[in-house]
Amino acid sequence: MPADVTFPLPAPHGPGEVTVRHRRLGAGSPLLLLHGIGHHWQAWEPVLPALAERHEVIAVDLPGFGASPALPPGVPYGVDAVVPVLGRLCAELGIERPHVAGNSLGGLLALGLGRAGLARSVTALAPAGFWTEAERRYAYTVLGGMRVGARVLPQAVVERLARSTAGRALLVSTIYARPARRDAAAAAAETGALRAATGFEPTLAAGRGLRFTGDLSALPVTVAWGTRDRILLRRQGVRALHELSDARLVRLPGCGHVPMSDDPELVARVILDTCAQVEEEAGRVSPSA
Fold first, then answer.
1. Could you tell me if 98 and 130 are in contact, meaning their C-beta atoms sit under 8 angstroms apart?
2. SS3 of 43, please?
3. pLDDT score at 285
4. How far is CA 181 from CA 36, 138, 146, in A?
5. pLDDT at residue 283, rounded to an integer
6. What one-character DSSP code corresponds to residue 288?
């Protein structure tokens, strides 16, 4: 079952604290899962069983998203501020240098954890931060439209729409290439999460002018992109590879911006293969399939 962990965090206006909702399951070396903007930890549910067969998996609601409250007043939502918060979270949970997989915003944060020496491997699914300014503006326009739609529609209407295939397509086809694979409860819940996300606007504001740079050559890094991503266009994956010269770039055929539901088996295999590069070197596990 999901649980909350609370820990102190210095803040500009005095001592503060952060509470993070998380789901923890499985056994093995730790694997931290980070969702995208406006989403929640449940985005990872389609791949959790496969990942938990080999790892202790910790899927979190980032601060200001899902069931995790906002950061303390004055604490920014940029990568340089949130990465240390996630480092403190790992320490509080008793995990040291986990494998990290993230999607979109979570992919950017996963790369940030790798850059800071806080991850043992990184799998970034359509990470933010490799856009041109025009591509960033486009993505923000799409995300802003999704946010408005989620806030305008009453929850009762959302739940009614989610009961039909056509309704789920209306609600979540921007992020999924195969929205029919999301069940009614999941589609309604993630629309509600987008509506309630207190960290949404501060995170967008922090991302203006952002381009990810850094040396992650000391650890395995995989960047994966869905061929049907409608928010962060897949050509950004090639740009990411130029910046992260030692990373591998994986194509996710038929997947949208949030690929975990579109092709759970493929996404799980990509993450496990990245983790296994470290595990094999240490002689702890067999190579992944």
1. no
2. helix
3. 43
4. 19, 26, 19
5. 55
6. P
Mean pLDDT computed over 107-115: 98
Distance between CA atoms of residues 270 and 125, nearest Å: 10
Distance, CA of 121 to CA of 270 (rounded, Å): 12
How many CA atoms within 13 Å lie on the side-chain side of 114?
30
Residues 6+ apart with CB under 8 A from 190: 39, 40, 42, 43, 172, 182
Q: What is the pLDDT of residues 194-209, one digit of tens each?
A: 999 999 999 999 999 9
Sheet holding 99-103, edge to edge: 3-11, 14-26, 55-60, 29-34, 99-103, 121-125, 221-226, 248-252
In angstroms, rounded to a whole number, what is the distance separating the alpha carbons of residues 221 and 244?
8
Instruction: Measure Cα distances from 143 to 13, 20, 253 in Å.
Output: 31, 24, 23
In order, the DSSP letters of 56-102 are EEEEE--TTSTTSPPPPTT---SHHHHHHHHHHHHHHHT--S-EEEE
- Residue from 180, 274, 188, 264 nearest 226 by CA: 264
Cβ pair 137, 156 in contact under 8 A: no
